[in-house]
Amino acid sequence: MSNQTEIGYYGNAWMSFMEENYPKQAAQMQKHGVFENVAQSVNHSACEYYKLLADQYAQQNPPPDDPEAYRSWKYTRDYYIKSAVMRERVLIPRTWK
Length: 97
What we know:
This protein is mainly α.
């Protein structure tokens, strides 16, 4: 198996999702040696989407200057963006054929 840092956070989350919910498909991808490659692709797509959503969020909700308010803003931003990325890019069954 590839190094987890190469697969990334979202790739590892996708692998766990597939193994838990679609074990036959995950086993087939592992058997054919493409499971980690698909996970890397998922991670790349999710990271790009995260950046896009973060930029959009900052445009629609400019960050405050006050440090305490900024922490709250960042927490809210991360909550919304991470949940959207997981729903829309990670927690989706994928096939390799």
